[in-house]
């Protein structure tokens, strides 16, 4: 006790002295996160003491991470027109990564902040320059790389394009555990690396190709930033490579000074690169090697695969790497003029010529935006792309080796299920939906205790599409399928299951577009009381809980001969006759009808923006709606806000 007080006193005194004499404002990661999330203009305090002003140019969200691109807005830095600030925001964890470049060098967010040096200068080891400019093993791009020894899939020369016609080079970023621990948030870090390349591509007018992050992973070993990683890493991350089919694989290591270390390594023309985790600036340089680039032009070299330096100390990505450009004679810098020469320094041409080849190294498994797609989409629970899990490690020990708990399943079809679910965990999945429409989302679940609650949402939690309770199924391997209907936007997106309450197992999720109301069978569920369904299980009209196999709780909507009205027929024929809903004798019932009865024709009035919520109004007695009154199903006049008159139509698979 005494000791603690003593230490507090020491620290407090130190801080007071420090803040009073040198720095007046305390910066921290959360403050930087809030600043970039909320403001398009601001300043960054560098650890050199300089305040750097920036203006946000663009914001976009990929894989749940918002990538913010800004330009430095500083009259004192005319050489860095278009110099970039890249920050990536994780809105789930409220964390940030950042990379900026100035005429004084590169800076990045320091996740180990001491609150005074949030933005720290990137200090690469001395070996960097000699490695970059002399020692790295460069070979002509038409020959096998000296440092590339892993298998590369047969090339698809037509390449792989998205629906905008641009080549897509898929990237896996694979961290060692040491590197992941060092960097803090691997999602924001990885997106920052990708953006550092894409920014340089756009700056250089290379618009026919871009990098896409298809996954991040943690594992393998940490021998350091050495060339053996380029080969061994493919073995460490073999399962991720198989699952995600990346065209390029970036290995991120923690620097340890091992013999042969550099800030980064890549085989020229190869499909792997490795960098030290503290140095995002090295990333675009190493990718440039993979694409086929060499370094600065030597006097007796030929070919156009070189970086370009307008003058000493200022160079494009493959030559000095302090300008966010790949060399190109077509790019005219406002201060420095052309950033390349036609016959020797044209990395933009290398990119354009090799984009098809590199995009086609592996056939993509993560769908492109706009990929043709048909539902239903079946997602194995264990094939999540990102997650948050309450317990360290994989409790079940099967299938994957991160935080999610996975075991073998004895459900039909076998495979694996996610288990040991707990409150506030989440799993996310990449889906590509064919249309903005209503979808029925089904979950294959088992629970011995019940009480689970799944929230289906866009990754990050905005918007929330719907929630569904998970019942007690009578055992941890007694499987049942539950479902609900949600409205989803078209296109490539990450959806997430937020586990609001746990204690259930999940085998798979299926997403299927809700068909036309006249196709198939539907359950009619009370929106006010979701446990209540319309049925005729006792041979007459009833309302209440049902079992999934009951035909008596399944209905067919038949278009009547007059447009706009439907007959509603039960799937079951308990008396050998068709059972239709009608009010022919004044009250709601089911039974045989005659074709002319308007009392058996119903208008389906959709409620709000939802395309599965309806009020059901009779044609003959047009002020009569089907509604719940005192727990019973009946028909009659309703008030506009009468919840008992709103019904959910749920298609039966
Ligand atoms: Ca590909
Ligand atoms: Ca766990
Ligand atoms: Ca499964
Ligand atoms: Zn290099």
Task: Give structural notes.
The chain is an alpha+beta fold. 16% of the residues lie in helices and 33% in strands. The chain is built from nine helices and 37 strands. Helix 5 (186-203) packs across helix 8. The termini are far apart. Bound molecules: calcium ion (CA) (3 copies) and zinc ion (ZN). Zinc ion binds at residues 132, 136, 285, 289, 295.
Ligands, deduplicated: calcium ion, zinc ion
Give the helix/strand class: alpha+beta
Query: What's the number of structural domains?
Result: 4
Mean pLDDT: 84
Number of helices, counting only DSSP H or I runs of 4 residues or more? 9
Summarize the structure.
The chain has 653 residues and is an alpha+beta fold. 16% of the residues lie in helices and 33% in strands. The protein has a 7-stranded antiparallel beta sheet, with helices on both faces. A 5-stranded mixed beta sheet has the order 9-8-10-12-11, sandwiched between helices. The protein has a 5-stranded antiparallel beta sheet with strand order 16-19-24-21-22, with no helix packed on it.
Keywords for this entry:
653 residues, alpha+beta, Collagenase (Catalytic Domain), Jelly Rolls, 4 domains, 7-stranded antiparallel β-sheet, 5-stranded mixed β-sheet, 9 helices, 16% helix, disordered N terminus, binds calcium ion, binds zinc ion
Describe how the helices and strands are arranged.
Blueprint: H1 2-21, H2 29-38, E1 41-45, E2 51-62, E3 65-72, E4 84-90, E5 95-102, E6 105-109, E7 119-121, H3 127-135, E8 167-175, H4 177-183, H5 186-203, E9 209-218, H6 228-236, H7 238-244, E10 248-253, E11 264-266, E12 272-276, H8 281-291, E13 328-333, E14 337-339, H9 347-359, E15 377-380, E16 386-388, E17 406-408, E18 416-418, E19 425-433, E20 437-446, E21 452-458, E22 464-470, E23 480-488, E24 491-501, E25 505-513, E26 522-526, E27 533-535, E28 542-544, E29 555-559, E30 566-570, E31 580-582, E32 589-591, E33 602-606, E34 613-618, E35 625-629, E36 632-636, E37 647-651
The structure holds calcium ion (CA) (3 copies) and zinc ion (ZN).
One calcium ion (CA) binds at residues 380-382, 409, 415-417, 507-508.
């Amino acid at each position: 006790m005494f000791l603690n007080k003593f230490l507090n006193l020491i620290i407090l005194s130190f801080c007071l002295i420090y803040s009073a004499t040198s720095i007046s404002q305390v910066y921290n990661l959360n403050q930087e996160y809030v600043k970039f999330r909320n403001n398009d203009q601001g300043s960054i305090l560098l650890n050199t003491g300089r305040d750097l002003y920036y203006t946000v140019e663009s914001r976009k969200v990929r894989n749940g991470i918002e990538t913010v691109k800004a330009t430095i807005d500083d009259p004192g830095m005319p050489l860095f027109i278009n110099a970039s600030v890249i920050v990536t925001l994780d809105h789930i964890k409220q964390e940030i990564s950042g990379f900026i470049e100035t005429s004084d060098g590169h800076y990045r967010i320091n996740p180990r902040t001491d609150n005074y040096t949030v933005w720290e200068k990137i200090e690469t080891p001395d070996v960097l320059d000699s490695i970059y400019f002399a020692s790295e093993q460069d070979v002509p791009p038409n020959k096998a790389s000296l440092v590339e020894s892993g298998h590369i899939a047969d090339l698809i020369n037509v390449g792989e394009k998205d629906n905008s016609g641009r080549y897509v080079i898929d990237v896996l970023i694979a961290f060692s555990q040491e590197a992941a621990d060092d960097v803090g948030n691997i999602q924001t870090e990885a997106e920052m690396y990708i953006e550092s390349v894409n920014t340089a591509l756009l700056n250089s007018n290379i618009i026919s190709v871009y990098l896409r992050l298809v996954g991040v992973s943690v594992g393998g070993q940490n021998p350091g930033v050495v060339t053996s990683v380029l080969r061994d890493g493919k073995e460490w991350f073999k399962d991720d490579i198989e699952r995600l089919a990346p065209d390029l694989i970036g290995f991120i290591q923690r620097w340890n000074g091992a013999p042969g270390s550099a800030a980064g390594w890549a085989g020229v023309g190869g499909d792997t690169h490795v960098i030290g985790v503290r140095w995002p600036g090295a990333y675009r340089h190493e990718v440039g090697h993979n694409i086929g680039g060499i370094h600065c032009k030597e006097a007796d070299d030929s070919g156009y695969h070189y970086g370009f330096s307008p003058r000493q100390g200022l160079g494009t990505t493959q030559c000095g790497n302090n300008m966010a450009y790949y060399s190109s004679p077509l790019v005219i810098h406002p201060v420095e003029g052309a950033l390349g020469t036609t016959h020797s320094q044209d990395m933009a041409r290398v990119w354009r010529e090799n984009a098809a080849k590199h995009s086609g190294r592996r056939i993509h498994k993560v769908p492109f935006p706009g990929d043709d797609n048909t539902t239903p989409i079946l997602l194995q629970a264990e094939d999540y792309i990102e997650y948050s899990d309450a317990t360290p490690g994989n409790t079940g020990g099967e299938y994957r080796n991160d935080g999610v708990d996975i075991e073998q399943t004895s459900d039909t079809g076998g495979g694996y299920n996610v288990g040991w679910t707990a409150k506030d965990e989440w799993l996310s999945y990449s889906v590509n939906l064919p249309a903005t429409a209503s979808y029925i989302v089904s979950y294959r679940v088992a629970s011995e205790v019940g009480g689970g609650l799944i929230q289906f949402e866009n990754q990050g939690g905005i918007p929330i599409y719907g929630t569904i309770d998970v019942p007690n199924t009578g055992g941890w391997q007694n499987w049942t399928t539950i479902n609900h209907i949600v409205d989803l936007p078209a296109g490539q997106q990450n959806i997430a299951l937020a586990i609001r309450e746990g204690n259930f197992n999940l085998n798979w999720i299926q997403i299927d577009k809700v068909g036309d109301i006249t196709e198939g069978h539907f359950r009619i569920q009370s929106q006010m009381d979701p446990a209540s369904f319309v049925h005729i299980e006792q041979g007459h009209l009833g309302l209440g809980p049902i079992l999934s196999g009951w035909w008596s709780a399944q209905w067919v909507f038949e278009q009547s001969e007059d447009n706009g009205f439907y007959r509603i027929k039960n799937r079951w024929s308990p008396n050998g006759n068709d059972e239709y809903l009608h009010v022919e004798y004044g009250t709601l019932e089911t039974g045989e009808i005659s074709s002319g009865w308007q009392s058996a024709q119903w208008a389906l009035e959709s409620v709000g923006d939802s395309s599965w919520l309806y009020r059901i109004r009779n044609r003959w007695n047009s002020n009569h709606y089907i509604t719940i009154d005192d727990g019973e199903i009946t028909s009659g006049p309703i008030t506009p806000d009468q919840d008992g008159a709103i019904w959910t139509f749920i298609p039966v698979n």
